[in-house]
């Protein structure tokens, strides 16, 4: 969105180039001749996961439910039939929940029914001691008021938007003859053109730096500008045109500012065409230094667009929201598109009960998100939300123009939503790997599986092959600090008696090799460490079902391993994540709820093992294919094969090489060179 608050004015007389400096103390900050205010700072804090909601102490008994319903029934008698907002309060007068309704009386009456409420609502009713109500003229007003009250009061049973900061803008000032390009937050009172919002301070800083290279517009403060007697360092490194000391005249600088405004307004193609034309003209006139300057400016513009990632072709102005839920948490990823450009994205982790569906979380999030922000013309969503038409109407009232809220099903808009959804999934995955969350998940895993202690080291095993070829096993390790990639191991399957595709036999070999080594180390006096992540695992997870578990259990029994817990994780029907079955020795199989954080943790462990073993298998297979043409040459072992491939790069180049070229490879004798040449060129001698 672009806001222009400047008034057309005539430039004042330019200051004398040799005017005495007014602020000499700022000139040598950090040993550089730069305005300290122009040094970018990454000041955004990363969004955090909310603390888990603990409702263990709020299990409603029939008695407390009855008391809560009685309080609501009293409120129903006084409630209006018109639209409005209601607040449920506990005995301490703390707000438990804020809701809106087209008819407040009907909505409250639904809470007073003796049956039909989900567990979360039943807990809320049981804690309710009083209800307060506010009437509104329309349902749209009720929605806007509800969002405002939720942000103010933060009721425990509502979805809560957290980490809600104002977004930064880029401002090209309009109150000086030499406009300045700066980062801006807050009220837009200074004259000039505002471009934004940008998702983060980092995105603004990167864009401003690139714009300085492309358009040479100053970023220093007015006081620093007026104090100059010579150009500062930014002029020397070609990030400013030096208007402060007359290195560029007023018309020339005005043209640079115009181009910067055009680019930020979405007319980037026109600006690039103009610069390309000037570059060709300068080159034709043999002014190569000037042509090189235009070339560098074009490269800077390309750098801006490459940093932006996706730039839509048909979407001029939109915010894109996608929500992903895993492990009892929700992540909402927001992308900002303005003037056909991607101005960044940010992940939010709203506080919400794990039983609340994605659409409900997203709907409440949106109303709060735009409580203090102007909405764009188009809002694209990954999930349809409740009262979507009402939300669009409320945002249109707020914006003073039509706002469309859409859940696209095809085309470029669908691609934008899909991209945002991928980012939401990845952002939540990264957050769930944080140490504090990891500790809670380990504790939950111990409880769910009935382990004797909270595991400090978990080892997960998987294997991969194609019809028995290039078989490889892998072990990944996790602990309180997350994945420990420096302790991952791969096992090239060596057993010759295995039938192709014998998964059980491969698992037996991997586990025997792993634990025999640990036993031998212990026998030699190499005691397991007492560090946070010991060498001996507390828990071993096998990818597979009952058969894989039995094979692993045989190995553990044969090696007399009694202190290591063991489980197998079988995929759900149609390999559906969220419907896995856990097999534990001497116990019935376990199925955790799809939204259970522990199940998500186990899925992540298994998926990481699968990723690592597939990567190891592909490397082995690629190497096998790469060396296939050298396998049958007599006298050419692994060392010479590696030397040949290192020297020539590809098998095709080895085939093309002459005897003399082959003989130049370290370790390849004249006789070996002839053998290699004859192998690829039979009958040539």
What is the rounded distance between the termini? 75 Å
Shape: flat
Mean pLDDT: 80
User: Unreliable stretches, pLDDT < 50, 5 or more residues?
Assistant: 8-31, 56-60
Q: Give the number of DSSP strands.
A: 19
Largest sheet report? 7 strands, mixed
Strand content: 15-25%
Number of helices: 21
How big is the Rg? 33 Å
User: What structural class results from the helix and strand content?
Assistant: alpha+beta
In helices, the fraction of residues equals 40-55%
How would you describe this protein?
This protein has 685 residues and is an alpha+beta fold. It has 21 helices and 19 strands. The chain has helices at residues 62-78, 104-112, 119-127, 139-153, 201-215, 222-226, 233-236, 250-264, 268-284, 288-307, 358-369, 388-399, 411-432, 435-449, 503-523, 546-558, 597-627, 638-648, 651-656, 659-663, 670-680, and strands spanning 2-4, 84-89, 95-101, 130-135, 169-173, 181-184, 192-195, 318-326, 329-338, 341-348, 378-381, 404-406, 458-466, 469-479, 482-483, 489-492, 539-543, 565-570, 581-583. The strands form four sheets. Strands 13, 14, 15, 16, 17, 18 and 19 form a seven-stranded mixed sheet that branches. A five-stranded mixed sheet has the order 10-9-8-11-12. Helix 1 (62-78) crosses helix 3 (119-127), helix 4 crosses helix 12 and helix 14 (435-449) packs across helix 17.
């Amino acid at each position: 969105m672009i806001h222009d608050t400047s008034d057309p004015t005539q430039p004042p007389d330019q200051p004398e180039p040799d005017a005495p400096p007014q602020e000499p103390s700022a000139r040598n900050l950090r040993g550089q001749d730069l305005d300290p205010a122009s040094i970018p700072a990454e000041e955004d804090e990363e969004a955090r996961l909310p603390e888990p909601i603990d409702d263990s102490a709020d299990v409603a008994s029939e008695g407390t439910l009855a008391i809560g319903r009685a309080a609501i029934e009293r409120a129903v008698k006084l409630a209006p039939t018109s639209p409005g907002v209601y607040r449920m309060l506990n005995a301490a007068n703390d707000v438990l929940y804020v809701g809106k309704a087209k008819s407040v009386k009907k909505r409250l009456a639904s809470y007073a029914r003796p049956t039909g409420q989900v567990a979360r609502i039943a807990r809320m009713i049981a804690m309710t001691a009083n209800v307060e109500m506010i009437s509104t003229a329309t349902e749209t007003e009720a929605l806007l008021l509800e969002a405002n009250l939720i942000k103010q009061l933060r009721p425990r049973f509502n979805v809560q938007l957290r980490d809600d900061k104002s977004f930064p803008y880029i401002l090209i000032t309009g109150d000086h003859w030499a406009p300045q390009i700066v980062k801006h937050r807050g009220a837009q009172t200074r004259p000039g053109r505002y471009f934004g919002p940008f998702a983060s301070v980092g995105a603004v800083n990167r864009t401003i730096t690139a714009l300085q290279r492309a358009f040479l517009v100053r970023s220093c403060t007015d006081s620093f500008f007026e104090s100059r007697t010579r150009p500062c360092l930014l002029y020397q490194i070609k990030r400013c045109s030096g208007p402060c000391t007359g290195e560029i005249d007023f018309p020339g600088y005005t043209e640079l500012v115009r181009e910067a405004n055009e680019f930020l307004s979405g007319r980037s193609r026109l600006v690039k065409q103009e610069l390309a034309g000037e570059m060709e003209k300068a080159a034709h006139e043999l002014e190569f230094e000037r042509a090189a300057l235009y070339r560098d400016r074009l490269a800077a513009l390309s750098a801006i667009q490459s940093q932006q990632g996706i730039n839509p072709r048909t979407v001029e102005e939109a915010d894109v929201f996608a929500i992903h839920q895993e492990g009892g948490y929700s992540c909402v990823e927001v992308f900002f598109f303005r003037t056909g450009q991607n101005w960044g994205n940010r992940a939010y982790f709203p506080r919400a009960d794990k039983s609340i569906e994605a659409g409900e979380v997203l709907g409440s999030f949106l109303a709060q998100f735009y409580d203090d922000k102007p909405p764009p013309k188009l809002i694209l969503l990954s999930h349809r939300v409740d009262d979507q038409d009402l939300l669009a109407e409320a945002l249109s009232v707020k914006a003073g123009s039509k706002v469309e809220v859409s859940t696209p099903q095809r085309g470029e808009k669908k691609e934008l939503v899909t991209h945002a959804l991928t980012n939401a999934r990845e952002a939540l995955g990264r957050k769930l790997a944080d140490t504090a969350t990891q500790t809670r998940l380990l504790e939950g895993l111990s409880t769910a599986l009935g382990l004797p202690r909270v595991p400090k080291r978990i080892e997960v095993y998987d294997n991969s092959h194609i019809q028995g070829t290039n078989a490889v096993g892998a072990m990944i390790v996790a602990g309180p600090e997350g994945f420990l990639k420096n302790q991952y191991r791969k096992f090239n399957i060596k057993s010759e008696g295995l039938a192709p595709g014998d998964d059980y036999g491969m698992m037996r070999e991997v586990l025997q090799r792993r634990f025999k080594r640990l036993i031998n180390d212990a026998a030699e006096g190499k005691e397991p460490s007492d560090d946070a992540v010991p060498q001996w695992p507390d828990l071993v997870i096998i990818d597979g079902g009952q058969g894989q578990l039995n094979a692993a259990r045989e190995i553990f029994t044969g090696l007399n391993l009694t202190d290591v817990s063991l489980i197998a994780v079988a995929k759900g029907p149609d390999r559906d994540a969220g419907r896995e079955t856990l097999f534990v020795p001497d116990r019935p199989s376990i199925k955790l709820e799809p939204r259970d954080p522990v199940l998500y943790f186990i899925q992540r462990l298994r998926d990481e093992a699968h990723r690592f073993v597939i990567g190891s298998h592909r490397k082995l297979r690629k190497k096998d294919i790469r060396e296939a043409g050298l396998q049958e040459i007599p006298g050419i072992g692994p060392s010479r094969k590696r030397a040949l491939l290192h020297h020539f790069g590809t098998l095709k180049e080895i085939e093309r090489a002459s005897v003399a070229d082959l003989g130049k490879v370290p370790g390849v004798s004249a006789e070996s060179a002839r053998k290699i040449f004859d192998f690829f060129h039979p009958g040539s001698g």
